[in-house]
Design a protein that fits this description.
single chain; alpha+beta; FAD/NAD(P)-binding domain; three-stranded antiparallel beta sheet; 12 helices
Length: 348
């Protein structure tokens, strides 16, 4: 059973970038081609911009996709329903009771004004990262909106800006997803106004202003808390965590969706392949640290450099002059879990 408090399609702050490491998995499920047929944009390169220069980084293994969450969520839901999975939209888990045999879960399906009690062996939390309960010392916000562009883009772009960075990712038609991370102090200085921040950055980084020239915003800004130093959380009180909720997240490269997909597959493998929660947790944690921990560390370093004009310009000049470093960025920006690891259980 899949439970979501929202009704699909739902607006959501998301970079909309589906990395090449998920092409085979989504193709096997029949989803990759559906996304392309419905307008998702094939992408073969990313470009990093400072205020005075850029570096082009080919996307490893060929092709990625730029895709709106409305399209992606719809395709995934269709695939889930083909497997006869019951989907409750507009519903929320109110209480859970655990024992040695599993969970009893109370669900308030407020969209239909009904209540349910279900029993399950495993409970998985994929609800995203929680906002901090206490004031954090370093807070970032993620904001996103869709724009119409005068020309179709064929690349994903990341712009370094003072105290933040902006990603521009083509999706269906002439639309692009403009999604950015901003430090809280700048967010407050600009009156918590998403457009004021982007206008300020367009002046500070002329290359960003040039790309947005002639564009038109077509959806309101939406904001979400982005953990600058998210702690890992894989298993707690008998509940498993995946995606952003487990800190499978890379807010710098926009790899949230891609990494979340891989984390779900790794958790599924752990649940099926091992006989008890202790063994499952051991292997799930090992998979994470082997394939994702280094990327998160590198993303943190890059994020710190990207938020300052001098350092971002220096890094881009260095990448343009050093093929070894540029290749390293390619190899680590989209971590890939070997297919034999993912498919070696349950007959495939």
């Amino acid at each position: 059973m899949l439970i979501d408090k929202s009704i699909f399609p739902r607006p959501k702050v998301c970079g909309g970038f589906i990395g090449p490491q998920n092409q085979e998995l989504l193709s096997t499920l029949g989803v990759w081609q559906i996304l392309i047929e419905r307008g998702a944009k094939p992408l073969t390169k990313s470009v990093l911009y400072s205020s005075s220069g850029s570096v082009t980084i080919p996307i490893r293994e060929g092709q990625a996709l730029g895709c709106s969450r409305q399209l992606f969520d719809a395709a995934l839901l269709e695939r889930v329903m083909k497997e006869d999975v019951e989907v409750l939209e507009g519903a929320q888990v109110r209480r859970t009771f655990s024992n040695t045999r599993g969970f009893e879960v109370e669900i308030d399906h407020y969209y239909r004004n009904k209540k349910y009690v279900i029993y399950t062996d495993h409970l998985i939390n994929a609800s995203g990262w929680r906002s901090p309960r206490v004031k954090a010392s370093h807070v970032q916000l993620g904001l996103g909106a869709l724009y119409n562009m005068p020309a179709v883009l064929e690349q994903v772009s990341l712009f370094c800006c003072p105290r933040g960075h902006v990603g521009i990712n083509p999706v269906e038609g002439n639309q692009v997803n403009v999604c950015y991370v901003v430090q809280e102090d700048l967010f407050n200085e600009k009156d918590c106004d998403g457009q004021k921040i982007l206008d300020y950055w367009s002046q500070e980084n002329p290359l960003l202003g040039r790309m947005l020239d002639g564009s038109e915003r077509i959806t309101p800004w939406k904001a979400v808390y982005v953990p600058a130093r998210a702690g890992e959380r894989f298993f707690e009180n008998g509940i498993w965590y995946v995606g952003d909720a487990a800190a499978f997240i890379n807010p710098v490269t926009g790899g949230g969706v891609s990494i979340a997909l891989m984390s779900g597959r790794l958790l599924a493998k752990s649940l099926v392949a091992y006989p008890n929660d202790a063994e499952r947790l051991k292997h799930y944690t090992e998979y994470y640290r082997k394939y994702f921990q280094e990327q998160r560390w590198l993303a943190g370093v890059w994020g710190g450099l990207a938020h300052h004009s001098f350092s971002s310009t220096a890094v881009i000049k260095l990448l343009n002059s050093n093929n070894f470093l540029r290749t390293g960025i390619i190899n680590h920006s989209h971590p890939r879990v070997p297919n034999e690891l993912i498919y070696q259980y349950a007959g495939g």
